[in-house]
């Protein structure tokens, strides 16, 4: 059964879904009209809560939480459930293959995945003896009884980085699993740099727990790790230049597997320092927007102040 929450959409999603449900009797699709966002909730979590607590979802043993712009193959749910049962998981999440067609996407999307994996090493996420917890919000299979034990979606209702907050809540009740996939992909386009900017700025400062100290440390770390090596390689001399070249080369090599995943030329790896600088500027702007009272802005909403 599919439950679609029409969260005040302006693109006709609700009408299209209701039309499909009315004209195709074999489609088990139920449309829930989203209610006004109450105080203390972020938009996506309020929509998820309405779908999960609707009468249509009450008898489910597993819940697949996914976005409307995610494309699943026909056997996606069956494979996820089988894997979850085999490994007794409370959360099975796939980082779907993001759209990577425009120049802006090719320059930034692989790096987004690369940095995410650095923040949340998947091997640590998947280990039961590690506290590291993360998930990718586009595709999350949740065991319903574990979600209830964790306090439901309401327990993280004001979380801005909702997928990782849900992963942390659920990992206290059992093992979780996260991986990249080629089989499930996103249709959401980021054709311009401004689109990437909005995506990152929305939650970057939340990732740093709204801490000026962590922002300062991150800035220093990014400069030393990603910007200093090419500067030494270009402007340095002797041993300093050699160290810069070697570090830049090693940095590029670590990025190549992600580029191969997206079927991009390895030459993009040489641009990682410039891309990292771009992400650092996005993060600084995220902190600035938070100080202006515009933190977490997405789809016209200024959202919660929790990680």
Report on this structure.
The protein has eleven helices and nine strands. It folds into two domains: 152 residues, Spore Coat Polysaccharide Biosynthesis Protein SpsA, Chain A (Alpha-Beta Complex); 103 residues, no CATH class. It is an alpha/beta fold and 307 residues long. The longest helix has 24 residues. It has a five-stranded mixed beta sheet, with helices on both faces. A two-stranded parallel sheet has the order 1-2. Strands 8-9 form a two-stranded antiparallel ribbon. 50% of the residues lie in helices and 14% in strands.
Give the key terms.
307 residues, alpha/beta, Spore Coat Polysaccharide Biosynthesis Protein SpsA, Chain A, 2 domains, 5-stranded mixed β-sheet, 11 helices, 14% strand, globular
Task: Summarize the entry for a quick read.
By secondary structure, this protein is of the alpha/beta class. It is 50% helix and 14% strand.
